[in-house]
């Protein structure tokens, strides 16, 4: 089925206004994260060509994800949402980001694809394709502390980048990812840099699957067997050593939401 706004909104169970306002954007953003999970298993077999399909086939992605109920990777989920927002009259564009790694360094600038919306003179970060933990609702591009469902966020300038930071339970701030404050063109991903290709090879070699889905007050992020849950700003971490439990958690995160 071709891309269809009404069907998309029905899949999101969005019954409120659709005018291009911040209220609409918040509702759609939160519902999208809860409806369509992130699933890195979809990158299996792509090798270093992880971003080859960044300019998505809109109808095919709509059929597989919105109608078929499967998860997606960042550029699929963000591409679909960008099309929806554009159809509703939002001024929407693309950003590229480098995600904070376990050692505190950042990945390449084009590692992650997400969106931004210009609304009432402000830029709002819009990201429905990041596994988390991260923001559930749009985030103003501002160093001011923004609270969402018990969690704290801010966007600060550092070394020529804007850095999305999340307040962790200790009270400290931890980077989520960094990005250049300039719109990106999807063509920039078609000829990946040597740094981006090297990064893709490292990801393929690690072979650790990452899945995630949000819920009303938080997110569940499964990295290999490590399950991180953020609920109302409180975090818990468990290692799923029981294969049956691991299988159940994966199935729950990726549970089908098919509208067929």
TrEMBL record:
Pfam families: Acetyltransf_2 (PF00797)
Keyword field contains Zinc: no
Similarity annotation: Belongs to the arylamine N-acetyltransferase family.
Assigned keywords, A-Z: Transferase
Entry GO MF terms: acetyltransferase activity
InterPro entries registered for this protein in UniProt: Arylamine_N-AcTrfase, Papain-like_cys_pep_sf
Top-rank lineage group of the source organism: Bacteria
Name listed for the protein in its UniProt record: Acetyltransferase
